Amino acid sequence: MLTFIFITGQVQEDEVIDSNVLPYCTIDKKQKKTIGEMEQEFLQALQAFYYEGKSIMSNEEFDNLKEELMWEGSSVVMLSADEQRFLEASMAYVSGNPILSDEEYDKLKKQLKIDGSEIVVEGPRCSLRSKKVYSDLSVDYLKMFLLNVPAAVVALVLFFFLDDLTGFEITYLLELPEPFSFIFTWFAALPLILWLSFTFTNIIVKDFLILVGPCPNCGTENTSFFGTILSISSGGATNKVKCSNCGTDMVYDSKSRLITLPEGSEA
């Protein structure tokens, strides 16, 4: 009698080979590139292509790298053209090969601040040239949205008051069979309420902007309002703010989007 002995081997977890693994995701965890390294390669590829006119990797490699970064949740591949340009300029400056002049770099950074980009917002820091401590300001969109809430409530009250005056004709339109009810609600009623809300807000508050930033001394976030309320101006492009935590006097500049300390003060 012949006896066949089958030896069953177990495949270790780190020995599994997946044909779907991208070239940038190696099986060996020790050699796996970090997100930062992949992001740097991605930006270097963009810089070489757009500014030097050459490719440092094939189209397939670039697509694989981009797909891997998207899979890892990297925000670099989701940046706008100006944001990518800013990061490329920053990397080029650090490497000693600037691609933008100081004026172009500052202009681009300022525009990104105005656009609300988060990649240019930094915490408290010290400038060796000006010998000042300062922080960046960003737009507080939540508080700016909440400014429209009172006007929205007034608009809703007027809307239902008009409904009552017309003998609930508006309610009748809202209860029409689909798709007429949907069309009236989303393309007539809601746009009217929003228009009334923004109109009432702009009558009371004009050219308003709410900026928030960390205190250069303790890091506590403080908010400042810029604009005009019932023809009363907040004070122009700069506001003086006292930190709610440490009491440090600060100057908020809505144009440069910077927080600085007044002359003679110490952080």
TrEMBL record:
Keywords: Membrane, Transmembrane, Transmembrane helix. The chain crosses the membrane at residues 141-162, 182-205. InterPro entries: PGRL1. This is PGR5-like protein 1A, chloroplastic. The gene is PGRL1A.
